[in-house]
Structures are given as structure tokens and as C-alpha cells.
Amino acid sequence: MSFSLPSLPYAADSLEKAIDKATMEIHHGRHHKAYVDNLNAALVGHDTLLVKPIDQLMGELKDVPESIRQKVINNGGGHANHSLFWATMSPNGGGEPTGRLADAIKSTFGEFSNLKAKIKEAALARFGSGWSWLVLASGKLEISSTANQDTPLMVGNLPLFGIDVWEHAYYLRYQNKRADYVDAWWNVANWDEITKRFEKGS
Ligand code: MN
């Protein structure tokens, strides 16, 4: 058993409303693939860890020997974060959430635009590489941000979606304009998938 790179659930050129084809191909086929390959390499000889679902592995780091823990954080986190990232975008995305998730957003942040503003604030405040997240923490919605490939799963929170703010995620089209990339990201937000995660976690 080993971890494998999930296929993109859509064509690489189908998220042009936010992300260009070349970025998608390099990001998925090279960056995400490298996380998977490096994770598998780190876990050679650790068969009980190789069979765990990736989200479970990242939530149980105490079971990972210290000698390889940072490699698992970097590469297992990279695998978990990117797998979620692809799934929570869609060519048919955009718009606003509905139903119970919309209600929870409203009671936590007020207007939907406030959620967007806070996600953007966290994305822009992240110095260097990392992620801006909407998570469920003890059943409540929270905005958070992590450095590098750290995942909210490491502290027991459930990420509903995250925006990758590593330069590899946006530099070809947006260069240094991280804010423009974050603004465009909402055009591909897959609220069906994000809502499913919310329903399962809350
Ligand atoms: Mn990335």
C-alpha cells in the first residue's frame, strides 16, 4: 500500500475563471505529485502508517516516529491539503452557499462578504508560503491560516476549504498579486462539496 496522486476531477483548463491551465498542470502533476512521492518515501518500512487514510494520518501525528515526523508534516500535509484543494473547486463553482452552511456563516460572520474579507485577510497576512482556511473547530466555523503545508487536521480541526497561497499556486498569471488571485478564487468555489464536508463534520 502507498499513497497515490488523485486525478483532477475536471480538465486542467476548466478553472480559467480563477486559475490558468499551466498552473493547474504544474501544481497538480509536479508539486502535488512530489508530496505524494516524498510521503511514500518517508514511510518506507512503516506499514501501519501507510495504510491510514491521509486525513487520519495527519490527525494522529503522535503515532509517527519523531525521526520522520517533520517529513510527514511537510509531505503528508501537502497531500492532504492539495487533495482537498482540488475537490473544493469546480468549473461550475462560484456563487454563495445555501442551507445550513449559509446559516452558520451568517450567524458566525454576518454577511457572506465578511467571510470572504476574513479569508482574504488571513491569506494576505500569511508571510511566505501557506494556506488560508475555513475550518470547523469543535463544531464552530473559524478562519485560520497555516504556514507551509501544515494542516488544520494537525490540531484536530476539520478544514472545509483552503486557499493555497504558495506562489506556485498563482505566480504564472498573477505574479506578486496574491490579492487578485484570492479574489478570483471564489469564482470556482465548489459549495456543493464544501457543504458536504460541513454537514459531515457538524
Ligand atoms: Mn500548492
Task: Quickly list its features.
Helix Hairpins; 202 residues; 3 strands; binds manganese (II) ion; 2 domains; minor pseudopilin epsh fold; 9 helices; single chain; mainly alpha; three-stranded antiparallel sheet
What is the secondary structure topology, with strand pairs?
Elements: H1 21-42, H2 47-50, H3 54-59, H4 66-87, H5 99-109, H6 112-125, E1 130-137, E2 140-147, E3 158-164, H7 171-174, H8 178-185, H9 191-201
Antiparallel strand pairs: 1-2, 1-3
Helix pairs in contact: 1-4, 6-8
Helix/strand/pairing category: mainly alpha
In DSSP terms, counting alpha (H) and pi (I) runs of 4 or more, how many helices? Answer: 9
Q: Characterize the largest beta sheet: strand count, sense, and whether it forms a barrel.
A: 3 strands, antiparallel
Q: List each distinct ligand once.
A: manganese (II) ion
Tell me which oligomeric state these chains represent: single chain
Beta-strand fraction estimate: 5-15%
**SSE order, one letter for each helix or strand:** HHHHHHEEEHHH
Task: Kindly report the name of the CATH homologous superfamily of the largest domain.
Answer: Iron/manganese superoxide dismutase, C-terminal domain
Fold-level CATH name of the largest domain: minor pseudopilin epsh fold
What is the radius of gyration computed over CA atoms, rounded to a whole number of angstroms? 16 Å
Which sequence of strands runs across the widest sheet?
2-1-3
Question: Any guess at the CATH architecture of the largest domain?
Answer: 3-Layer(bab) Sandwich
Report the principal-axis shape: globular
Helix content: 40-55%
Task: Give the terminus-to-terminus CA distance.
Answer: 31 Å
Number of strands: 3
